[in-house]
Specification:
It contains six helices and eleven strands. It is α/β, with parallel strands linked by helices.
């Protein structure tokens, strides 16, 4: 178990991409990490794009960067909601300043754009938000996974194995 003792927070809101939320959580748990979900409200049920539910452990404002080793932002349409919460943006900014692993896939790049933490970073995302990423100063690649230091980004569900391989490797070294 490569990630024994590691704690990861994953963000959630309605209309998350089901695989992009659950696959990373399950892979990290398989490696021994503890993964918590943070949503707009604690103990709230959120429904994915394809109907899979997820119940938050904490509200965004209850989560502190110092309590976690890494953060995950799933894709789907949820990122457009998640990025509207100042406490989420502050959390990402602190995780970034501490150089803790930040994982983002698909439309999750929107949250990092709103947190203003991708200027000069090498990233990928769904091609649909390529312009948003570049306009925020990122250097965008059309690759299954792009790792730039502590930032690990990916495009879409078929890329999940590559994404989690790299994310786990980065988290293991922290």
């Amino acid at each position: 178990m490569r990630l024994e003792g590691k704690k990861v927070i994953s963000l959630v809101h309605n209309d998350f991409e089901d695989l992009e939320l659950w696959y990373p959580i399950l892979r990290l748990q398989e490696e021994g990490a503890v993964v918590h979900l943070a949503g707009e409200k604690a103990k709230e049920k959120y429904i994915g794009k394809y109907g899979v539910p997820a119940i938050s452990d904490f509200a965004y404002g209850e989560v502190s960067a110092e309590d976690y080793d890494a953060i995950l932002v799933p894709g789907g349409w949820a990122p457009d909601k998640i990025r509207r919460f100042p406490e989420v943006l502050s959390l990402l900014q602190q995780m970034n300043a501490d150089e803790k692993p930040i994982g983002q896939i698909c439309h999750a790049g929107w949250v990092l754009v709103s947190a203003k933490i991708i200027d000069g970073k090498k990233v990928t995302s769904t091609p649909g938000i390529k312009d948003d990423m570049e306009n925020a100063g990122a250097i965008w690649y059309d690759e299954p996974v792009v790792t730039d230091g502590h930032l690990v980004s990916s495009r879409r569900p078929p890329d999940l194995p590559d994404y989690l391989r790299d994310f786990i490797n980065v988290l293991e070294k922290k």
